[in-house]
Design goal:
Elements: E1 6-10, H1 16-31, E2 41-43, H2 48-61, E3 66-69, H3 72-83, E4 92-98, E5 101-107
Length: 108
Amino acid sequence: MLFKRIAFVGWEPEDDHLVDRFHGYKNAVEKDGSTFQPKMNSYSSLSIEGGYQATVKLFERFRPDAILYTCDRMAVSYLLERLNGKINSPQEDKVSITPKLVIRSSTK
């Protein structure tokens, strides 16, 4: 796996759709030999604002190499707030978007 410290940002952890995504994420992290830690995930409402809040909470306790945003609305929050200077990253950001997957990563 290209990144070792991959975080997970999602909405209501009880939602069946999110549970499936979380288990896929956790299995991939552990299959790669990394250890999943609860501080690697963050949840908030399924909205642009929720994505921002979840990202801020995440950065308070964990600095990932990449973030798996589980929906486009939540991922857009990172992009908007990063461009507006509300989220600071000491590293250059790269964003990869696929039909069902959005990853935010920082290069070192």
